[in-house]
Known about the structure:
The protein is mostly helical. The chain has one domain (2-231). The protein is built from 10 helices and no strands. Helix 2 (27-49) packs antiparallel against helix 7 (131-151), helix 5 packs antiparallel against helix 7 (131-151) and helix 6 crosses helix 8 (159-177). The longest helix has 23 residues, at 27-49.
Amino acid sequence: xxxxxxxxxxxxxxxxxxxxxxxxxxxxxxxxxxxxxxxxxxxxxxxxxxxxxxxxxxxxxxxxxxxxxxxxxxxxxxxxxxxxxxxxxxxxxxxxxxxxxxxxxxxxxxxxxxxxxxxxxxxxxxxxxxxxxxxxxxxxxxxxxxxxxxxxxxxxxxxxxxxxxxxxxxxxxxxxxxxxxxxxxxxxxxxxxxxxxxxxxxxxxxxxxxxxxxxxxxxxxxxxxxxxxxxxxxxx
Length: 236
């Protein structure tokens, strides 16, 4: 739970800084900061993926996971869920109360409805690797400052759904870890780290509308577990 706790704490602190200390951050600072963090995320993802010992399994996982993810179109459903939550939580209202709801809704959706939250939380639970969520914390923190300055204290309260959402995924992954061999955890983590690198690439160099739909690659993380389990059963 360390990763989710740090992520939530950073959101609260940075949102409060934005609310009470910072005003009018130039967009170019935010853009450059995102690209810098994106480079760090690419590095973390590639470094973690190098722990892989079965290259062909990794490739097969990405291919089959991409096919399944596109068939389900996870990215589309995540976007729809975000729009639904924004509508229900009051996005679009005006005034002080409306700003609170809009800040809470916008920040919650942005911080939760993303591949980095899912992959990072799974890494925390499966392998005790919190680096992805720490990197996400830096990114979320910078965004919280900007949102807090413009939308107010509601942004700080978005830390609650972030903690529940990411903590839940981490705890479920931790429970599943007891049933997984070290080999399975290594290969699943390697695939997950490649997805983290793809997230970083989206921040750094891909134009709007041409991003890698990382959410549709999430099923790839589970393929090594299924494959190695079946392989072990066949071998007896």
